[in-house]
Amino acid sequence: MKRKINWGILGLGKIANKFASDLQLSPNAVLYSVASRNEKKAKSFSEKYNSVKFYTSYEELADDPQIDVIYVATPHSFHFEHTMMCLKKGKGVLCEKPMGLNFPEVEMMSREARSRNLFLMEGMWTRFIPATNKLLEILENKEIGDVLFMRADFGFKGNTDPEGRLYNKELGGGSLMDLGIYPIYLSILALGIPLEIKSTARMTTTGVDAYCSMLLNYENDAKAILETTIEADTPTEAYIYGSNGSLKLHRSFHHSEKITVSRDGHQEVFNLEYNGNGFIYEIEEVNECLRNGKIESSKLPLNTSHEIIKIIDRIKEDIGLKYESKLPTKNL
User: Fold this and answer.
1) Does residue 250 form part of some domain?
2) Distance, CA of 62 to CA of 255 (rounded, Å)
3) Which residue in 327, 273, 319 sits closest to 175, CA to CA?
4) What is the pLDDT of residues 222-243, one digit of tens each?
5) Strand 69-72 with 92-96, pairing
6) How far from chain centre, in Å, is Cα 9?
7) CATH number, domain containing residue 255
8) DSSP character for 239?
9) 80 and 194 share a domain?
10) Do the domain assignments include residue 169?
């Protein structure tokens, strides 16, 4: 496939606006169509970002034969349903994180995509920005030695409306599902898969976590301390400490534009600005995969998404957090 990739966007909220804006930066992509169940929103979004078409039905979007891949940007609790619908209609999918509410959902989505030979990737834009590429280079070259421990936090004071996205359990709300995936993913990049997880949380009256603290232990006795909250602004920084030095991912660490490496009393600062809103890099990764006939990204394979959601599931069990899955009961 050498032509431009035709994109569809399903769900037109805040993050979809940022994504659509960055899609304009790609010479390899066309925003072909967008869909919202609100006709006014669909028409307005289409005009703002110059899509060829717009639909008031998600199914109609997925049925459009001109679309190569669909970006699913609906609330967390609908990712499984909407991704499966797109896959069953023969469309590749970039699904906004977290890909599902639990491992069975993510595993079934992966199985569906692989069985149909269709592209599927979790929308972990963090993986593709310049700072993450530099971080991986630093760690691979052992510029700070062997990683001993790390800590990362992610917190902001969110809208406490019980019907809003952050506090509504039916929408997959809570700090763990909305924010926790970022420090968890960073811990995987730095330390791999933990042997043991200890978690504690403060729960809201709506049944989701407003604060979650996680201690991860590893086979080599390395540690990770991770915190998330939707009830207070926190530094949103990450520190990784090694046997020969340390590094800091500056605010906000999940899309940082600055890394400071400290060794032997000296500091080296890397300024790593990204284009647009930072989504252009994952967009180009998807474009490249599709143009080369790949159904998974080697940089963010589905197995990595499996490991992320397995860790989240372990933390959910620890803190007593449960969501109602749309997965058929027989598969749970």
Assistant:
1) yes
2) 30
3) 319
4) 999 999 999 999 999 999 999 9
5) parallel
6) 16
7) 3.30.360.10
8) E
9) no
10) yes
